[in-house]
Write a structure and sequence with these properties.
Number of helices: 11
Number of domains: 1
Helix content: 55-70%
Shape: globular
Radius of gyration: 17 Å
Number of strands: 0
Order of helices and strands: HHHHHHHHHHH
Oligomer: single chain
């Protein structure tokens, strides 16, 4: 994949609908959890760490399963591994708003990736998942598409974190928590934040969550009297 294609996937104009979701940021701000610039940055850092522990393992596992070369006879077994993984992620994403967001963004991400690449394997997977009514969870779809677009695993991790940070800062700007210039400075600081290396990412069967306050905010979102974001 060339630099232009990576930049296209990282662009906020890439039409996947992430702008409609705040990842619990809106509810956290309304609950008083975010009162200072430091609180805002810490919320994003904790969200990234939680995602790398709970959802990114599914993206990395999907990437690694599809990366493994198999003979056609074993393709059905590989397909089954991915389907099982998707259902496990579906069960683990127990907050209804977050489950819906994951599927909505995953479906949009797969649609646009199929459209811009015309990749036969992605087309096959899209048809299979839709036919069998399997939820198109973002993390697994992200891992699949990054492999088909020839990203390396480290590039996939960097792109995953960048998109998460970018969308949350954009949400913060629209909520009035900070201005556009301050948002750009915050993103620059966050991009230097040391997160887990690929060697530290657990297999998807050992994925876990460690930020219960973020989950409380995410679950509380539907209780807000007025809200800007869908979740």
């Amino acid at each position: 994949m060339n630099l232009g294609q990576i930049l296209q996937m990282a662009d906020s104009a890439f039409p996947v609908g992430g702008y409609a979701f705040s990842g619990g940021l809106e509810a956290a701000a309304r609950m008083g959890m975010i009162q200072t610039r430091s609180d805002f940055q810490q919320f994003i850092v904790m969200s990234c760490l939680q995602n790398l522990q709970s959802e990114f393992p599914f993206a990395l596992s999907a990437f690694q399963i599809l990366e493994t070369k198999v003979k056609p006879f074993f393709q059905k077994k590989k397909d089954g591994q991915l389907v099982d993984m998707i259902w496990e992620l579906d069960a683990a994403t127990f907050i209804p708003q977050m489950n819906k967001a994951s599927i909505t963004i995953g479906r949009a991400w797969l649609d646009i990736c199929v459209e811009i690449s015309d990749d036969k394997e992605l087309c096959r997977w899209k048809a299979k998942l839709l036919k069998e009514k399997i939820p198109l969870h973002y993390a697994v779809i992200f891992g699949m598409t990054c492999l088909r677009f020839a990203l390396s695993a480290p590039q996939m991790q960097e792109l995953y974190i960048y998109i998460l940070q970018r969308d949350m800062i954009s949400s913060g700007v629209r909520l009035g928590l900070l201005g556009p210039g301050e948002g750009a400075r915050t993103l620059k600081l966050l991009l230097t934040e040391p997160y887990y290396s690929l060697d530290e990412i657990k297999p998807y069967g050992q994925a876990y969550r460690t930020a219960p306050l973020i989950e409380i905010a995410q679950a509380y979102h539907n209780q807000l009297y007025t809200r800007l974001f869908q979740n």
